[in-house]
Every structure is written in structure tokens, then in C-alpha cells.
Amino acid sequence: WKKADIVISRSGANTVAETIITGRPAIFIPLTNTFNDEQTKNADYAKDIGIARVISEDKLNKDTLTNELNIIDQKWETMVKSAIDFENPDILASSKICEILKEYANS
Asked: Is the pTM of this model over 0.85?
């Protein structure tokens, strides 16, 4: 991810998380037939942070993709900064979960 200047991808949870963590601007094209429209929600989450643009499948064509690439080209540094400045709501969540599991295992 760190070697990419831009990511163009579907918007599964892991892909979106890696995009945010590595600070790579992205164009997400959510898969439409997912449970609870999760890919659109993932893409919108990254968009709200400022690191991604979103194109729905039905709107994807040469012109919309070119337009989004031009926007990212103009805003690349701002988008990267938005990911860097993003505060994870609970950066220590995994440590907390491990502690809870250890306590449970030892009880």
C-alpha cells in the first residue's frame, strides 16, 4: 500500500482500513449486492474522513473515473493529511480485548 499513490478498489472492510491507515487516497467502487450494503457504508466512512472518493457501480464509466482521478490529483496532499489527522476512536481496542480474554481465561 505504501508504494501506491492512489488505490482504485472495491470497498471491503480490510481494504478501507488499510487505505486509511496507510494514508493512500482512494476511489472506491462498492460492490452493490452485499449484506446491509456494507461496502457502501465502508466507502462512505473513508469518504467522510476525507481519504476517499466513491463511485457507485451504476455511475462508473470513463468520464466519472477520469473526473474523480482529476479531483484526487488536485487534492492529493489534503486527502493524505486527512488520513494522518484522523483520530481512531479506540486505537487500543485490540489490547483491551486481549486483556479481557486473558482475564476470562484465568478465571
From this structure: no
